[in-house]
Specification:
The chain is an alpha/beta fold. It folds into 2 domains: 182 residues, Isopropylmalate Dehydrogenase; 147 residues, Isopropylmalate Dehydrogenase, CATH 3.40.718. It has 11 helices and 12 strands. It has a 10-stranded mixed sheet with strand order 2-1-3-12-11-4-5-10-8-9, sandwiched between helices. A hairpin with a 4-residue loop joins strand 11 and strand 12. The two termini are 23 Å apart. It binds adenosine-5'-triphosphate. Adenosine-5'-triphosphate binds next to loops.
Length: 344
């Protein structure tokens, strides 16, 4: 049966990258595209960054493909469309896989150029981040002299995110999940996350998946020094946000990293990068993060073979060095997308 996909262009590079993704998906599968609006441009037109109609369509469609939205800093009570969507659809798990691409220089290992040192083994790990609470609970106060933000950690959300991480590890044949926290200082909140996580881990020991834990600051260092140490990281909202941007630098930067937001009923796929207003409309945005997110979506809606074809076609473009400037090439977005389509 044809699947329905809500696509949300968003702002900045959003419309150009979404058009590329749709054209590539149309080569692979028949989907029914439903347009949804969200973001700053939508706010300017409709007075809200996330119209109710978009939320309703997201609930009705089989999945959501989202590019990126701009969140303006100076508008009081402006709430980011993507954060609201994650909450409305209860997309509690944010999954970000990090897989090396051919011929991409890695800043931590090489100072420039296209070539990764031959000795460096390809990276293959994932960060699973809790998506609904933590420091992004939106409970903040300020009297102008003193400001506070409430960091909410619940047993329920901790258990389900760690369970998600273990199920992902099992499905992808990883053998270890690392719980990342700061429980030595945040004794109550991260203490609860860790306790809940360790309890969940017990039931996966029989499946051969082990569990360890690590302090977030040491993980930030180890990600640069020895990223091969990690398989699946499970962590709370803010830590996961920061570590995943850091990790994207290890595989070529923000332009190449995909992500999935998964809930019990709904799913939404988006590149890790933002709306990149500095390069919008110039035809130079890297389409990789967007297309890899599309591949993750295809797998989720039952088109695994097509997802693999797309992943391979993207990797082939890197082998051919038909890639954008941010990863050391000279191709435009359109030229890179054309190469990927030809590689399908
Ligand atoms: P936002 O406010 O939407 O988060 P931002 O510019 O603060 O936007 P990003 O959009 O993530 O944050 O961009 C950070 C940097 O990475 C920018 O210099 C941008 O040009 C670059 N960048 C982001 N996405 C891409 C991409 N797809 N291709 C190339 N460069 C990108």
């Amino acid at each position: 049966m044809t699947k329905s996909i809500l696509y949300i262009n968003g702002d900045g590079v959003g419309p150009e990258l979404m058009a590329s993704a749709r054209s590539v998906i149309d080569e692979l599968v028949d989907v029914e595209w439903v347009e949804g609006h969200a973001g700053y441009a939508t706010f300017k037109q409709q007075g809200t960054p996330l119209p109710q109609a978009t939320i309703d369509s997201a609930r009705a469609c089989d999945s959501v493909l989202f590019c990126a939205v701009t969140t303006p800093p100076n508008i009081p009570n402006y709430k980011s469309a993507i954060i609201t969507l994650r909450q409305e659809l209860d997309l509690y798990a944010n999954l970000r896989p990090f897989d090396s691409l051919p011929n991409v220089s890695v800043p931590a290992w090489a100072s420039g150029g296209l070539q990764q040192p031959p000795s460096a083994s390809p990276l293959h790990f994932a960060i699973v981040r809790e998506n609904t609470e933590g420091l992004y609970s939106s409970i903040e106060e300020s009297d102008g002299q003193r400001a506070t933000a409430l960091r909410v950690i619940t047993r329920h959300a901790s258990e389900r995110i760690v369970k998600f991480a273990f199920d992902y590890a099992k499905a992808r044949k990883f053998s270890r999940v690392t719980l990342v926290h700061k429980a030595n200082v945040l004794r109550k909140t991260d203490g609860l996350f860790l306790e809940a996580g360790r309890e969940i881990a017990k039931s996966y020991a029989r499946a051969g998946i082990s569990c360890d834990d690590a302090i977030v600051d040491s993980v930030a260092m180890r990600l640069v020094k020895s990223p091969q140490d990690f398989q699946v990281i499970a962590t709370t909202n803010l830590f996961g946000d920061i570590l995943s941007d850091e990790a994207s630098a290890l595989i070529g930067g923000l332009g190449v990293a995909p992500s999935a937001n998964i809930g019990e009923k709904h799913s939404l796929f988006e590149p890790v990068h933002g709306s990149a207003p500095d390069i919008a409309g110039r035809g130079i945005a890297n389409p990789t993060g967007m297309l890899r997110s599309a591949a993750m979506m295809l797998e989720r809606i039952g088109c695994k073979k097509e997802a693999v074809r797309l992943e391979k076609a993207i990797a082939r473009a890197y082998e051919q060095r038909i890639v954008t400037k941010d990863v050391g090439g000279s191709a435009s977005t359109a030229q890179m997308v054309e190469a990927i389509r030809a590689n399908l």
